[in-house]
Amino acid sequence: MSCSRETVKASGCLSFAYPTTQQQLLVWRERPRCVLVLKKLGDELLVDFVRVLRFLGAEQGMRVLVEPHEYLKLVGRADLGFIDTYTPPEATRLHQYVDFVVCLGGDGTILHASSLFQRAIPPVISFSLGSLGFLTNHTLATAEDDLRGVIYGCEDLDQCALDEEMRGVHVTLRMRLECRIVRQGGGSHTGREEVYEVLNEVVVDRGANPFLTKIECWERDRLITKVQADGVMLATPTGSTAYSVAAGGSMVHPVVPAILFTPICPHSLSFRPVILPDYAELELRLPADARCPAWVCFDGKQRQELHRGDVVRVRMSTNPVPTISKTDQTADWFTSLERCFGWNDRVEQKPLT
Protein backbone atom coordinates (compact mmCIF):
# COMPACT_ATOMS: atom_id res chain seq x y z
CA MET A 1 0.00 0.00 0.00
CA SER A 2 1.34 3.39 -0.95
CA CYS A 3 -0.52 6.32 0.59
CA SER A 4 1.38 9.16 -1.05
CA ARG A 5 1.22 10.22 -4.69
CA GLU A 6 3.07 13.00 -6.46
CA THR A 7 2.19 15.04 -9.52
CA VAL A 8 4.91 16.26 -11.85
CA LYS A 9 4.12 19.46 -13.77
CA ALA A 10 5.10 19.64 -17.44
CA SER A 11 7.29 22.70 -17.01
CA GLY A 12 10.35 21.39 -18.83
CA CYS A 13 12.21 21.11 -15.50
CA LEU A 14 11.07 17.87 -13.93
CA SER A 15 11.41 17.41 -10.18
CA PHE A 16 10.53 14.23 -8.32
CA ALA A 17 10.15 13.94 -4.55
CA TYR A 18 10.67 10.16 -4.81
CA PRO A 19 12.78 9.35 -7.90
CA THR A 20 13.07 5.68 -6.91
CA THR A 21 11.30 3.06 -4.82
CA GLN A 22 9.71 4.34 -1.62
CA GLN A 23 9.60 2.53 1.70
CA GLN A 24 6.88 -0.12 1.47
CA LEU A 25 4.38 -0.64 4.28
CA LEU A 26 2.33 -3.84 4.45
CA VAL A 27 -1.21 -3.38 5.80
CA TRP A 28 -3.65 -6.26 6.29
CA ARG A 29 -7.20 -5.62 5.11
CA GLU A 30 -8.23 -8.22 7.68
CA ARG A 31 -6.33 -10.14 10.33
CA PRO A 32 -4.11 -12.92 8.88
CA ARG A 33 -5.44 -16.41 9.61
CA CYS A 34 -2.97 -18.90 8.14
CA VAL A 35 0.82 -19.04 8.56
CA LEU A 36 3.49 -21.40 7.22
CA VAL A 37 6.41 -22.05 9.60
CA LEU A 38 9.70 -23.31 8.15
CA LYS A 39 12.90 -24.25 9.91
CA LYS A 40 16.29 -25.50 8.80
CA LEU A 41 16.84 -29.25 8.63
CA GLY A 42 17.64 -31.27 11.72
CA ASP A 43 16.40 -31.27 15.30
CA GLU A 44 18.71 -28.54 16.57
CA LEU A 45 15.91 -25.95 16.59
CA LEU A 46 13.08 -28.25 17.64
CA VAL A 47 12.47 -26.52 21.00
CA ASP A 48 12.39 -23.06 19.42
CA PHE A 49 10.27 -24.41 16.57
CA VAL A 50 7.62 -25.74 18.99
CA ARG A 51 7.71 -22.47 20.93
CA VAL A 52 6.82 -20.47 17.80
CA LEU A 53 4.16 -22.99 16.77
CA ARG A 54 2.46 -22.74 20.18
CA PHE A 55 2.48 -18.95 20.12
CA LEU A 56 0.92 -18.75 16.66
CA GLY A 57 -1.53 -21.65 17.04
CA ALA A 58 -2.50 -21.82 20.71
CA GLU A 59 -2.18 -18.14 21.69
CA GLN A 60 -3.05 -16.37 18.45
CA GLY A 61 -5.56 -18.90 17.14
CA MET A 62 -4.01 -19.15 13.68
CA ARG A 63 -4.01 -22.11 11.34
CA VAL A 64 -0.37 -23.22 11.38
CA LEU A 65 1.13 -25.17 8.49
CA VAL A 66 4.45 -27.01 8.58
CA GLU A 67 6.26 -29.01 5.92
CA PRO A 68 5.19 -32.67 5.54
CA HIS A 69 8.43 -34.11 6.99
CA GLU A 70 8.07 -31.90 10.09
CA TYR A 71 4.39 -32.74 10.42
CA LEU A 72 5.20 -36.46 10.69
CA LYS A 73 7.46 -35.72 13.66
CA LEU A 74 4.90 -33.58 15.52
CA VAL A 75 1.49 -34.96 14.57
CA GLY A 76 1.20 -37.19 17.64
CA ARG A 77 1.74 -34.43 20.21
CA ALA A 78 -1.41 -33.48 22.09
CA ASP A 79 -0.21 -29.90 22.67
CA LEU A 80 0.16 -29.30 18.92
CA GLY A 81 -3.24 -30.43 17.72
CA PHE A 82 -3.68 -27.21 15.74
CA ILE A 83 -0.86 -27.85 13.23
CA ASP A 84 -1.56 -28.95 9.68
CA THR A 85 0.44 -29.68 6.51
CA TYR A 86 -0.06 -29.89 2.76
CA THR A 87 0.21 -32.53 0.05
CA PRO A 88 2.52 -32.27 -3.01
CA PRO A 89 -0.36 -31.24 -5.34
CA GLU A 90 -1.33 -28.51 -2.87
CA ALA A 91 2.22 -27.13 -2.72
CA THR A 92 1.69 -25.17 -5.96
CA ARG A 93 -1.31 -23.40 -4.41
CA LEU A 94 0.17 -22.48 -1.03
CA HIS A 95 0.15 -18.77 -1.89
CA GLN A 96 -3.63 -18.87 -2.16
CA TYR A 97 -4.22 -19.52 1.53
CA VAL A 98 -0.97 -18.77 3.41
CA ASP A 99 -0.97 -15.17 4.70
CA PHE A 100 2.69 -15.00 5.74
CA VAL A 101 5.70 -17.28 6.24
CA VAL A 102 7.93 -17.63 9.31
CA CYS A 103 11.51 -18.83 8.73
CA LEU A 104 13.70 -20.16 11.55
CA GLY A 105 17.30 -20.59 10.47
CA GLY A 106 19.76 -18.80 8.22
CA ASP A 107 19.66 -17.37 4.73
CA GLY A 108 19.26 -20.88 3.32
CA THR A 109 15.84 -21.11 4.95
CA ILE A 110 14.70 -17.98 3.10
CA LEU A 111 16.03 -19.39 -0.17
CA HIS A 112 14.08 -22.56 0.60
CA ALA A 113 10.92 -20.50 1.15
CA SER A 114 11.50 -18.79 -2.20
CA SER A 115 11.85 -22.17 -3.92
CA LEU A 116 8.57 -23.41 -2.38
CA PHE A 117 6.70 -20.48 -3.94
CA GLN A 118 7.75 -20.47 -7.59
CA ARG A 119 5.18 -17.80 -8.42
CA ALA A 120 3.53 -15.46 -5.92
CA ILE A 121 4.97 -15.63 -2.39
CA PRO A 122 3.45 -14.25 0.84
CA PRO A 123 5.43 -11.91 3.14
CA VAL A 124 8.32 -13.62 4.95
CA ILE A 125 9.59 -12.89 8.47
CA SER A 126 12.90 -14.57 9.30
CA PHE A 127 14.66 -15.22 12.58
CA SER A 128 18.43 -15.56 12.71
CA LEU A 129 19.29 -19.07 13.88
CA GLY A 130 21.92 -20.00 11.29
CA SER A 131 25.64 -19.37 10.83
CA LEU A 132 25.53 -16.05 8.94
CA GLY A 133 22.03 -14.68 8.57
CA PHE A 134 22.54 -11.69 6.27
CA LEU A 135 18.83 -11.73 5.38
CA THR A 136 17.59 -12.65 8.86
CA ASN A 137 17.30 -9.48 10.92
CA HIS A 138 15.00 -10.69 13.69
CA THR A 139 16.20 -12.56 16.76
CA LEU A 140 14.39 -15.31 18.62
CA ALA A 141 14.59 -13.40 21.91
CA THR A 142 11.85 -11.03 20.70
CA ALA A 143 9.99 -13.54 18.51
CA GLU A 144 6.60 -13.16 20.20
CA ASP A 145 6.68 -9.35 20.02
CA ASP A 146 7.85 -9.38 16.41
CA LEU A 147 5.20 -11.88 15.35
CA ARG A 148 2.51 -9.95 17.20
CA GLY A 149 3.65 -6.84 15.35
CA VAL A 150 3.25 -8.65 12.03
CA ILE A 151 -0.23 -9.90 12.86
CA TYR A 152 -1.61 -6.64 14.23
CA GLY A 153 0.72 -4.04 12.69
CA CYS A 154 3.42 -2.18 14.56
CA GLU A 155 3.71 1.02 12.53
CA ASP A 156 1.11 3.79 12.30
CA LEU A 157 0.19 4.99 8.83
CA ASP A 158 1.13 8.65 8.91
CA GLN A 159 -0.57 10.96 6.41
CA CYS A 160 -2.82 8.23 5.12
CA ALA A 161 -6.10 9.41 3.64
CA LEU A 162 -7.66 5.96 3.74
CA ASP A 163 -7.93 5.34 7.47
CA GLU A 164 -6.15 7.11 10.30
CA GLU A 165 -6.18 4.00 12.49
CA MET A 166 -4.56 1.60 10.04
CA ARG A 167 -1.26 0.01 11.05
CA GLY A 168 1.32 -1.98 9.14
CA VAL A 169 4.87 -3.30 8.99
CA HIS A 170 7.79 -2.28 6.79
CA VAL A 171 8.62 -4.77 4.03
CA THR A 172 11.41 -5.04 1.50
CA LEU A 173 10.35 -6.21 -1.95
CA ARG A 174 13.28 -8.41 -3.00
CA MET A 175 13.50 -8.88 -6.72
CA ARG A 176 13.70 -12.38 -8.19
CA LEU A 177 14.90 -13.54 -11.60
CA GLU A 178 12.75 -15.66 -13.88
CA CYS A 179 15.08 -18.16 -15.58
CA ARG A 180 14.12 -20.38 -18.50
CA ILE A 181 16.24 -23.18 -19.93
CA VAL A 182 15.52 -23.73 -23.62
CA ARG A 183 16.96 -27.06 -24.71
CA GLN A 184 18.16 -27.06 -28.31
CA GLY A 185 21.42 -28.99 -28.03
CA GLY A 186 20.17 -32.56 -28.14
CA GLY A 187 19.61 -35.05 -25.36
CA SER A 188 16.39 -36.20 -23.73
CA HIS A 189 15.32 -32.64 -22.79
CA THR A 190 15.42 -31.18 -26.32
CA GLY A 191 12.53 -28.78 -26.98
CA ARG A 192 11.52 -28.54 -23.32
CA GLU A 193 11.39 -25.34 -21.31
CA GLU A 194 12.20 -25.40 -17.60
CA VAL A 195 11.36 -22.36 -15.49
CA TYR A 196 12.97 -21.37 -12.17
CA GLU A 197 12.63 -18.31 -9.96
CA VAL A 198 15.79 -17.34 -8.09
CA LEU A 199 16.29 -14.93 -5.22
CA ASN A 200 20.12 -14.78 -5.29
CA GLU A 201 21.64 -15.76 -8.62
CA VAL A 202 21.75 -18.04 -11.63
CA VAL A 203 25.24 -19.37 -12.43
CA VAL A 204 26.59 -20.95 -15.61
CA ASP A 205 30.04 -22.50 -15.13
CA ARG A 206 32.40 -25.07 -16.62
CA GLY A 207 31.89 -27.62 -13.87
CA ALA A 208 34.60 -30.30 -13.84
CA ASN A 209 35.63 -29.64 -17.44
CA PRO A 210 39.33 -28.75 -17.91
CA PHE A 211 38.61 -25.96 -20.46
CA LEU A 212 37.36 -22.44 -19.92
CA THR A 213 33.67 -22.22 -20.62
CA LYS A 214 32.56 -20.18 -23.64
CA ILE A 215 29.22 -18.44 -23.28
CA GLU A 216 27.58 -15.93 -25.58
CA CYS A 217 25.70 -13.21 -23.67
CA TRP A 218 22.82 -11.49 -25.47
CA GLU A 219 20.49 -8.68 -24.41
CA ARG A 220 17.37 -9.20 -26.49
CA ASP A 221 18.84 -9.47 -30.04
CA ARG A 222 22.15 -7.76 -29.34
CA LEU A 223 25.32 -9.70 -28.58
CA ILE A 224 26.87 -8.10 -25.47
CA THR A 225 29.99 -10.18 -25.11
CA LYS A 226 31.47 -13.66 -25.22
CA VAL A 227 32.53 -14.99 -21.85
CA GLN A 228 35.71 -17.05 -21.63
CA ALA A 229 36.03 -17.77 -17.96
CA ASP A 230 35.22 -20.28 -15.26
CA GLY A 231 31.67 -19.02 -15.67
CA VAL A 232 29.28 -16.11 -15.36
CA MET A 233 26.44 -15.25 -13.00
CA LEU A 234 23.39 -13.03 -13.13
CA ALA A 235 22.45 -11.89 -9.65
CA THR A 236 19.70 -9.88 -8.01
CA PRO A 237 20.49 -7.00 -5.63
CA THR A 238 19.67 -9.40 -2.78
CA GLY A 239 22.19 -11.85 -4.23
CA SER A 240 24.81 -9.11 -4.61
CA THR A 241 26.07 -9.85 -1.08
CA ALA A 242 26.31 -13.61 -1.72
CA TYR A 243 28.30 -15.38 -4.46
CA SER A 244 28.48 -12.22 -6.58
CA VAL A 245 30.43 -10.18 -4.03
CA ALA A 246 32.83 -13.10 -3.54
CA ALA A 247 33.47 -12.98 -7.31
CA GLY A 248 34.22 -9.25 -7.21
CA GLY A 249 30.78 -7.80 -7.86
CA SER A 250 29.36 -4.68 -6.23
CA MET A 251 27.10 -4.73 -3.18
CA VAL A 252 23.72 -3.30 -4.15
CA HIS A 253 20.85 -2.25 -1.91
CA PRO A 254 18.00 -4.79 -2.29
CA VAL A 255 15.42 -2.31 -3.62
CA VAL A 256 17.65 -0.90 -6.38
CA PRO A 257 16.05 -2.16 -9.63
CA ALA A 258 19.01 -3.89 -11.28
CA ILE A 259 20.50 -7.14 -12.56
CA LEU A 260 24.15 -7.80 -11.74
CA PHE A 261 26.31 -9.32 -14.49
CA THR A 262 29.38 -10.82 -12.79
CA PRO A 263 32.08 -12.96 -14.49
CA ILE A 264 33.73 -15.75 -12.52
CA CYS A 265 37.54 -15.78 -12.92
CA PRO A 266 37.51 -14.27 -16.44
CA HIS A 267 40.58 -14.77 -18.64
CA SER A 268 40.71 -11.04 -19.38
CA LEU A 269 41.95 -8.09 -17.34
CA SER A 270 39.31 -5.80 -18.85
CA PHE A 271 36.27 -7.97 -18.04
CA ARG A 272 34.71 -6.20 -15.07
CA PRO A 273 31.30 -6.74 -13.44
CA VAL A 274 28.50 -4.48 -14.64
CA ILE A 275 25.07 -3.54 -13.31
CA LEU A 276 22.20 -3.59 -15.79
CA PRO A 277 18.69 -2.14 -15.50
CA ASP A 278 15.95 -4.44 -14.32
CA TYR A 279 14.16 -4.35 -17.67
CA ALA A 280 17.09 -6.10 -19.40
CA GLU A 281 16.22 -9.47 -20.96
CA LEU A 282 19.33 -11.59 -21.13
CA GLU A 283 20.31 -14.84 -22.79
CA LEU A 284 23.27 -17.03 -21.94
CA ARG A 285 23.93 -19.27 -24.94
CA LEU A 286 26.34 -22.15 -25.24
CA PRO A 287 27.64 -21.81 -28.83
CA ALA A 288 28.26 -24.68 -31.20
CA ASP A 289 32.03 -24.08 -31.16
CA ALA A 290 32.32 -24.30 -27.35
CA ARG A 291 35.05 -26.73 -26.34
CA CYS A 292 32.93 -28.39 -23.68
CA PRO A 293 29.44 -28.42 -22.16
CA ALA A 294 28.57 -26.19 -19.19
CA TRP A 295 26.53 -26.46 -16.02
CA VAL A 296 23.80 -24.21 -14.65
CA CYS A 297 22.36 -23.90 -11.15
CA PHE A 298 19.70 -21.71 -9.56
CA ASP A 299 20.32 -20.41 -6.05
CA GLY A 300 22.79 -23.27 -5.69
CA LYS A 301 20.14 -25.90 -6.53
CA GLN A 302 18.77 -27.81 -9.53
CA ARG A 303 22.29 -28.10 -10.97
CA GLN A 304 22.19 -29.58 -14.48
CA GLU A 305 24.24 -29.84 -17.63
CA LEU A 306 23.89 -27.54 -20.64
CA HIS A 307 24.75 -28.84 -24.10
CA ARG A 308 25.92 -26.85 -27.11
CA GLY A 309 22.97 -24.87 -28.43
CA ASP A 310 21.15 -24.68 -25.09
CA VAL A 311 20.01 -21.26 -23.88
CA VAL A 312 19.26 -19.81 -20.44
CA ARG A 313 16.90 -16.82 -20.68
CA VAL A 314 16.81 -14.49 -17.70
CA ARG A 315 14.60 -11.51 -16.89
CA MET A 316 13.10 -9.84 -13.87
CA SER A 317 10.30 -11.83 -12.29
CA THR A 318 6.94 -10.22 -11.63
CA ASN A 319 6.87 -12.00 -8.24
CA PRO A 320 9.26 -10.43 -5.73
CA VAL A 321 9.87 -11.85 -2.25
CA PRO A 322 8.45 -9.47 0.39
CA THR A 323 10.58 -9.78 3.53
CA ILE A 324 9.39 -8.12 6.73
CA SER A 325 11.89 -5.62 8.11
CA LYS A 326 13.09 -5.31 11.69
CA THR A 327 13.31 -1.52 11.45
CA ASP A 328 13.23 -0.47 7.79
CA GLN A 329 14.81 -1.70 4.57
CA THR A 330 17.87 0.58 4.65
CA ALA A 331 18.68 0.31 8.35
CA ASP A 332 18.39 -3.49 8.17
CA TRP A 333 20.76 -3.66 5.20
CA PHE A 334 23.51 -1.58 6.80
CA THR A 335 23.11 -3.52 10.04
CA SER A 336 23.67 -6.76 8.12
CA LEU A 337 26.74 -5.32 6.35
CA GLU A 338 28.31 -4.45 9.69
CA ARG A 339 27.22 -7.60 11.53
CA CYS A 340 28.10 -10.17 8.86
CA PHE A 341 30.91 -8.56 6.86
CA GLY A 342 32.46 -6.11 9.30
CA TRP A 343 32.01 -3.55 6.53
CA ASN A 344 34.60 -0.75 6.73
CA ASP A 345 35.69 -1.93 10.14
CA ARG A 346 39.12 -0.42 10.81
CA VAL A 347 41.01 1.52 13.43
CA GLU A 348 40.02 5.17 13.26
CA GLN A 349 42.65 7.75 12.42
CA LYS A 350 43.91 9.81 15.29
CA PRO A 351 43.44 13.58 14.98
CA LEU A 352 46.44 15.72 14.14
CA THR A 353 47.95 17.42 17.16
UniProtKB/TrEMBL annotation:
Gene3D superfamilies: Probable inorganic polyphosphate/atp-NAD kinase, domain 1, Probable inorganic polyphosphate/atp-NAD kinase, domain 2. The keyword NADP applies. The keyword Hydrolase does not apply. One of its GO terms (biological process) is NADP+ biosynthetic process. It comes from Elliptochloris bilobata. GO terms for molecular function: ATP binding; NAD+ kinase activity. InterPro entries: ATP-NAD_kinase_N, ATP-NAD_kinase_PpnK-typ_C, NAD/diacylglycerol_kinase_sf, NADK. This is NAD kinase.
